[in-house]
Design a protein that fits this description.
- The chain is of the alpha/beta class.
- It has one domain (3-22, 40-174): Rossmann fold.
- The chain is built from six helices and five strands, in the order αβαβαβαβαβα.
- It has a five-stranded parallel beta sheet, with helices on both faces.
- Helix 2 links the parallel strand 1 and strand 2 (67-72).
- Helix 3 (75-83) runs parallel beside helix 4.
- It is globular, with a radius of gyration of 16 Å.
- It starts with a helix and ends in a 10-residue tail after the last helix.
């Protein structure tokens, strides 16, 4: 069984564990002992894997800070969302982008390069979340200006832990640009 199939098979078990810990699927965060931020964190997930997007969204909802998660499935959709074009004309500017590299239409490297060379987008932190652990892919992503590079673990529990670590750092420790600097 490949990594995606293992994650697909394990997602229901992880969701059940979260429910036992107080996670309410109708809200954006854990219900017990949470503190809400003055404004939600806007997250854009760019990933063509429905299972990975679902698991990532679930892990992000388990947060002390509420967040609004949007998902697009290819590089062209990502750029339309970020430029607020077509059906995305009312899209919020994300505070954080979680970007897979292996995307249809426009790959993740092209998306990253376009984000980091566009004056109106370059301040948005981008974290690559990829199945590739190739040193040349990691180096190329950092050369293009990625904030962090996360290799997707094959085990769903490890994947969930990794996304939670990203969430803890970016939602609770890192200072994101103030609202007035978001276009």
């Amino acid at each position: 069984m490949d990594g995606k199939a293992r994650r697909n098979a394990t997602v229901p078990r992880v969701l059940a564990q979260l429910s036992q810990q107080g996670w309410d699927p109708s809200s954006n965060c854990m219900t017990a002992g949470t503190k809400q931020a003055p404004r939600p964190i806007e997250v854009l997930i760019v990933d063509d894997s429905e299972a990975d997007s679902h698991l990532t969204t679930t892990a992000l909802r388990d947060a002390r800070i509420s967040n609004d998660v949007r998902i697009v499935e290819d590089g062209d959709q990502a750029m339309a969302f970020l430029h607020r074009e077509g059906s995305y004309r009312h899209a919020p500017r994300p505070d954080l982008v979680l970007l897979d590299l292996n995307l249809p239409k426009k790959d993740g490297f092209a998306v990253l390069q376009e984000i980091k060379t566009d004056p109106s987008l370059k301040t948005i932190p981008v974290i690559v979340v990829s199945g590739s652990d190739r040193p040349e892919d990691i180096a190329h992503a950092y050369d293009l200006g990625v904030a962090a590079y996360l290799v997707k673990p094959l085990n769903v529990d490890e994947y969930f832990i990794a996304i939670r670590a990203v969430k803890e750092l970016w939602f609770n420790a890192v200072a994101l640009p103030p609202t007035e600097h978001r276009n």
